[in-house]
Design a protein that fits this description.
Blueprint (H helix, E strand, L loop, with lengths): L2 E4 L3 H10 L5 E4 L21 E4 L2 H4 L4 E4 L3 H15 L3 E4 L12 H8 L4 E6 L4 H5 L4 E7 L2 H11 L4 E6 L2 H23 L4 H21 L4 H4 L2 H12 L4 H11 L10 H16 L4 H11 L4 H9 L7
Parallel strand pairs: 1-2, 1-4, 2-3, 4-5, 5-6, 7-8
Antiparallel strand pairs: 6-7
Helix pairs in contact: 3-4, 7-8, 7-10, 7-11, 7-12, 7-13, 8-10, 12-13
Length: 313
């Protein structure tokens, strides 16, 4: 099965490097002027098995297309190029909820490309680790079990181990919602509130993730796997996470480079809207949304969470 990666950000480039161990890979980028050394992934030169192109029509000749695009950019990309993708095996790596439609990437892909087989690749992973060949385990979610099995084998390498599930909703919600909680964890550390408070945010945040996912039809046990708890643990405890660093900056009242994609900021706003629509209690997500919008201070957020009515766990 021939493979193309659409999107040459850090994660897309890292996946191309990893998958080139299995055979030739095409990497599509809007700008290919960087040659074999992508500035989005410093210190990594592309192996010879990767063909880099800025011609989307050429890249989409592959049987399997991995869409390594930001969640909020995916809808626009599909509006312009869905005809080139339909009928293919489409694997999204986006971790977010579309602000316009309040749905995950799989729904956007299925609606735009009704003849395609849609899957989601998610889980605890940093681009730098994947590109360096460090052992990484991810979740491959596809509603079609047979197609999921084929994709699992095509995307696995000696150092990239994929676990399979048919619970697409659970897998992609885990990846999206953990970014919101990672921002909250960063706020706690940036504000100097301590590791005990971070542990509380992670635990109660996981409860929020599971609650909303179940309301949206996901299997709760999926959230306890790599795509939920695994990714949550990684992003809430490492400064390699953009979402965590963004939260740190918010907590410390410092500026943050807005050119860096922070999926959790937009997802928090989408989650707040979803939670209101479904009458689902999501206090941490609501707090992150307001902090990102600048309508709540860190002090007010901490007081709000600590003075909520006492309850059973």
């Amino acid at each position: 099965m021939s493979v193309a990666i659409l999107g040459a950000g850090a994660f897309g480039t890292a996946l191309a490097v990893a998958l080139s161990a299995n055979g030739p890979v095409t990497l599509w980028a809007r700008d290919t002027g960087w040659g074999r050394d992508n500035p989005r992934l410093p210190g990594v030169s592309l192996p010879g098995g990767i063909a880099v192109t800025d011609e989307l029509s050429a890249a989409t000749q592959a049987d399997m297309l991995v869409l390594a695009l930001p969640a909020q950019a995916l809808g626009g990309f599909l509006a312009d190029h869905a005809r080139l993708l339909d009928g293919k095996h489409l694997v999204s790596t986006a971790k977010g909820i579309d602000l316009t439609r309040l749905t995950g990437p799989s729904a956007l892909l299925a609606d735009a490309c009704p003849q395609a087989t849609v899957a989601v690749l998610t889980g605890p992973s940093f681009a730098a680790d994947i590109a360096r060949g460090l052992p990484t385990a991810l979740t491959l979610a596809c509603a079609d079990a047979d197609a999921g099995r084929a994709l699992q084998h095509a995307l696995s390498t000696p150092v990239l181990r994929l676990y399979r599930t048919t619970d697409v909703a659970g897998a992609e919600l885990g990846g999206a919602l953990k970014n919101v909680i990672a921002i909250a964890a960063g706020v706690v550390i940036g504000a100097g509130l301590g590791d005990s408070a971070r542990a509380a945010i992670i635990t109660r945040g996981f409860a929020e993730m599971t609650r909303l996912a179940a309301r949206l039809g996901a299997r709760p046990e999926t959230l306890s796997g790599l795509s939920g708890l695994g990714d949550l643990t990684l992003t809430c405890t490492s400064a390699q996470s953009r979402n965590f660093r963004y939260g740190q900056a918010l907590g410390a009242r410092q500026p943050f480079d807005t050119a860096t994609t922070v999926e959790g900021a937009a997802t928090a706003r989408a989650v707040a809207a979803l939670a209101a629509r479904m009458a689902c209690d999501m206090p941490i997500a609501a707090m992150v949304a307001r902090l990102a919008e600048g309508t709540m201070t860190v002090d007010d957020a901490a007081q709000h969470l600590m003075t909520r009515p006492l309850k059973e766990e």
